[in-house]
């Protein structure tokens, strides 16, 4: 057995050959992904604590499925999901100001600003101005908001755009849910978000974050000399995947990063005692465990570590355009020193993400030359290989 | 005189909806320390004004963002055009009363 090929040995079914580039650059392949993946599977569209109060709502644009979803908390405290379209003449009910639009209504209603049709958080059409001028065939009861399947896991909101989903959310998550069960996502609520549109395929973005091989080269500036043993505990769970990323946590930080680490320990590359990780994460209690890197198919990466969790989401806009959202969460600071230390850790993380995203548009542009038709993956890039296999299975299903 | 509520129940940030016998809703406001009462139902749509927001002495309807002057009931912003009925308020022994 060659230890350098340990993941191939564990997962021979994934093969070891080169991976075709065409799915990253072909518009018709993307059309099939939209139909077979983004309009079919459960998608993570937010967290319940983003809309904490009754009547709070968020509208999220889902370009890959040609719709926007209204997520609204009703007076009964239940979060429901609807397409953002008015039954009158098809305008958006909530006027969107970007990829995500937030609002609140004490009355738990949304009003279309075109002609003033009012809908409740339960989806019912509550008020139509000059209703008497509509004809007998118009039935208010049948013209509520169009509902979307919604379900929840660990405070994450999922929607499914299929008329009848192939699987329940629990079935879809499978072992992935059990792997992370118990991690205190909600307690680590102090967060920052970065988002931007990138000129690359969503899988180029996924792949850039789904391995640690790049750390030594790309992050030589932000996290110098931290790469050690790479991936450990790779686990493939249906369409989802996870692994531990191990780094040299003892590397000398810059003086200011050292001070920040000693106050808050909010940086990924510092040694921290394990108190909150579920038993399935870092099961061998490796000293060099830095964080768990997981992919919740298709487009959500969830990472957890002691005192920190963060996500990347890649929302396709076109075959070569992607909305990237990166969110980083820590426990709310209690002192000004902690606040400063966390801001420092977050800034460092932001720099690392900028380094990560820097390659994506270059990769896409170069891939589109078609001068190369395949990419060559090494053993520690198994999550990318698994992704390619899973996407291929869905698209050709 | 009809008793609506006690003074203690009122809050500057919250509008209290009181339902009278027969279902007629009254909105009770505490505005800069003064108490006011109006009909709760918007004169334009079917909205409960108690679920609206107070802005600059006006009650803004949650349905279409029309508004009324809380003190006088005058319609201040379209689509509201018909004035809102207001009621003189009297506080007797810590309780808010109106004359119908």
Automatic annotation (TrEMBL), chain A:
Keywords from the named record: 2Fe-2S, Iron, Iron-sulfur, Metal-binding, Oxidoreductase
Limits of the Rieske domain: 42-159
Signal sequence bounds: none
Classification via PROSITE patterns: RIESKE (PS51296)
Gene3D superfamilies recorded: Naphthalene 1,2-dioxygenase Alpha Subunit, Chain A, domain 1, Rieske [2Fe-2S] iron-sulphur domain
GO molecular function terms noted in the UniProt entry: 2 iron, 2 sulfur cluster binding; iron ion binding; oxidoreductase activity
Cofactors that this protein relies on: Fe cation
Pfam entry (one): Rieske
Name by which UniProt lists this protein: Putative iron-sulfur protein
Source organism (scientific name): Sphingobium chlorophenolicum
From TrEMBL, chain B:
Rieske domain span: 2-98
Keywords linked to the UniProt accession: 2Fe-2S, Iron, Iron-sulfur, Metal-binding
Co-factor(s): [2Fe-2S] cluster
Presence of the UniProt keyword Cell cycle in the record: no
GO molecular function: 2 iron, 2 sulfur cluster binding; metal ion binding
The UniProt record lists the keyword Flavoprotein: no
Family: Belongs to the bacterial ring-hydroxylating dioxygenase ferredoxin component family.
The protein, known as: Rieske (2Fe-2S) domain protein
The species this protein was found in: Sphingobium chlorophenolicum
């Amino acid at each position: 057995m060659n230890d350098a090929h340990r993941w191939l040995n564990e997962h021979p079914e994934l093969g070891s050959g080169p991976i075709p580039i065409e799915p990253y650059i072909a518009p018709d392949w993307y059309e099939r992904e939209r139909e077979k993946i983004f309009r079919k599977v459960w998608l993570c569209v937010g967290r319940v604590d983003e809309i904490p109060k009754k009547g709070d709502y968020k509208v999220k644009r889902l370009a890959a499925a040609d719709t926007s979803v209204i997520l609204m908390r009703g007076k009964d405290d239940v979060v429901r999901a609807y397409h953002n379209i008015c039954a009158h003449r098809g305008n958006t009910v909530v006027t969107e100001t970007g990829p995500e639009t937030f609002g609140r209504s004490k009355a738990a209603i949304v009003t279309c600003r075109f002609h003033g049709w009012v809908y409740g958080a339960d989806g019912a059409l509550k008020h139509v101005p000059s209703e008497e001028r509509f004809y007998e065939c118009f039935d208010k009861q049948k013209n509520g908001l169009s509902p979307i399947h919604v379900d929840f896991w660990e405070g994450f909101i999922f929607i499914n755009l299929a008329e009848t989903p192939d699987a329940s959310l629990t079935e879809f998550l499978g072992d992935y849910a059990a792997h992370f069960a118990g991690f205190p996502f909600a307690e680590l609520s102090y967060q920052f978000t970065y988002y931007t549109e990138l000129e690359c395929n969503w899988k180029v973005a996924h792949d850039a974050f789904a391995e640690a091989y790049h750390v030594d080269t790309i992050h030589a500036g932000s996290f110098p000399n931290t790469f050690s043993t790479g991936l450990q505990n790779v686990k493939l769970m249906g369409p989802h995947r996870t692994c531990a990323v191990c780094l040299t946590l003892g590397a000398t930080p810059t003086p200011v990063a050292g001070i920040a680490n000693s106050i808050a320990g909010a940086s990924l590359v510092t040694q921290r005692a394990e108190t909150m990780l579920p038993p399935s994460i870092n099961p061998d209690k490796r000293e060099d465990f830095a964080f768990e890197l997981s992919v919740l198919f298709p487009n959500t990466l969830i990472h957890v570590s002691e005192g920190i969790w963060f996500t990347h989401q890649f929302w396709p806009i076109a075959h070569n355009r992607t909305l990237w959202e990166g969110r980083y969460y820590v426990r709310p600071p209690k002192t000004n020193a902690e606040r400063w230390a966390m801001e420092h850790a977050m800034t460092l993380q932001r720099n690392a993400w900028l380094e990560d995203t820097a390659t994506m548009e270059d990769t896409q542009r170069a891939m589109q030359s078609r001068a190369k038709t395949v990419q060559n993956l090494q053993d520690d890039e198994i999550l990318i290989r698994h992704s390619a296999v899973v996407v291929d299975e869905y698209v050709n299903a | 005189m009809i008793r609506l509520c006690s003074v203690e129940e009122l809050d500057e940030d919250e509008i209290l909806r009181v339902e009278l016998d027969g279902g007629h809703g009254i909105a009770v406001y505490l505005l800069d320390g003064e108490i006011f009462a109006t009909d709760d139902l918007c004169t334009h749509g079917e909205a409960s004004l108690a679920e609206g927001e107070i802005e600059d002495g006006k009650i803004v309807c949650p349905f279409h963002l029309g508004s009324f002057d809380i003190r006088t009931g005058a319609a201040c912003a379209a689509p509201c055009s018909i004035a809102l009925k207001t009621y003189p308020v009297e506080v007797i022994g810590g309780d808010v009363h109106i004359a119908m």
